[in-house]
Amino acid sequence: MYQRLLSVFLLTSLCVPFFPQHASASSAWPAGAGIDIGLVSLAVTVSAFDASGLVYDSILGQLIGIGDDGDIVTMNTDGSGVSAFSVSGDPEDVTVAVEGSNIIYLSDENAGTVSAFDLSSGALTGASWSVSAYISTAAKLGIEAMTFVPNGYHPYADGTSGGLFYVGSQYNGDIAVLDIDTSTSGSVALIDTISTGRSDLSGLNWNSDTQILYAEYDGYDLLAELESDGTVVNEYAMTSGLNQEGITVVPDCALGVADVYVADDGAPNVWKYTGYPIDTDTVYADGDGDGLGDFTFTALVCVGGSSAGYVSNSDDTNDAIPNAGVEIGGDGKDNDGDGDIDEYNTIASNGAHPYYSTLSASDTSAYGTVITSLKVVRKTGMLLVTFSDASVYAYSVWSGGWMSKPMIISASSVKGSAYVLVSYDGFSWRIYNGYTGVLVSSKTRFMLKTAAQTWAIGVLGL
Ligand SMILES: [Ca+2]
Ligand SMILES: [Ca+2]
Ligand SMILES: [Ca+2]
Ligand SMILES: [Ca+2]
Fold first, then answer.
1. Distance, CA 288 to ligand 4 centroid (Å)?
2. Sign, CA torsion 444/446/447/448
């Protein structure tokens, strides 16, 4: 009895562990261990740098870090090439609205403002917006996180400056969605407040390539992936760089991973984590440019993105020849999208084959290579030409109803060319262009097939 009670106790302990609120929802850290890229260069260049925010400008190719004692640094993604600037105040996060513009926006926790700073002149532009009315704060728990979400990526009406600023409160984790008119100092409107339900929000970073809002919570040592309306996608427990103050994510969509950079005010450090998983789309090579992709040659692109020479479908049955709009026989698919599967192509419904019809019908290597079989159907009077992409074109060469007549049905290539010699009775002989179904010549006289071939060769000059 004692043993059984003990087992029940242990089982219960194992299955229902006590976790603080939210923590049980997070997954293990999915990327590599953090590498400190910033400590040495920042300590040498900027005295008492107290990292508080971070953003990456993909056009400048620079990480932009700020310290809450007013330091601003730019650096390469390996931490080298540091340039330093300084402002007064208590900047806690940094974002960029127009990449490559050299204008960055600083959120000041004490002043409750967003200010513009020009990296090219190394000075504040003078434009500033008071946002404190929209953010819940307590002592030293104010505007701690900020990012910019371009129009088209957020669920709101377009912002006046190409997007909306998401400004987060360390106090209660709420994100104020603000329309800041960056051309007019002081012009700001509250659009929405998103409650993340978790305090100590310390960094925000929107990335349009992954279409994810990355939110970092210092007290929880957590990185949350949110949609731009605040919906949680993933939550990851962080294992290093645990004094999180700022975050920026630099994706490499072709590799399906990102580098995550975290500003940490403990050392101070900038941590780099490689191999962070991101969502991507698969695209397929379109070697023949017909808009259909080859499923055997794929590449990864950013969500909703594209790559030159690739398309989003994998519908090409032969990526060496343009054959969009053609029904391919025997593959069980409705390739031409007309609702019928594996039916014959006709000139009326499919048009001439976009590749084979452009070839010379007099090429005497056509039969057996480009054209893989010829057949006439006595009942319907159809000439069926099968091409090497497995498409079958049906041409009406005589009206049906000849079943009661004696038949010498014949369809053959003229000297290996794409010209097809057809007869149904040995008297009426016709030459068709097998690529287009066009009648080239006809003759009404009883001929054996060998004589008819000689006649056709003469007519065609082969
Ligand atoms: Ca193609
Ligand atoms: Ca093709
Ligand atoms: Ca079809
Ligand atoms: Ca088909």
1. 19
2. positive
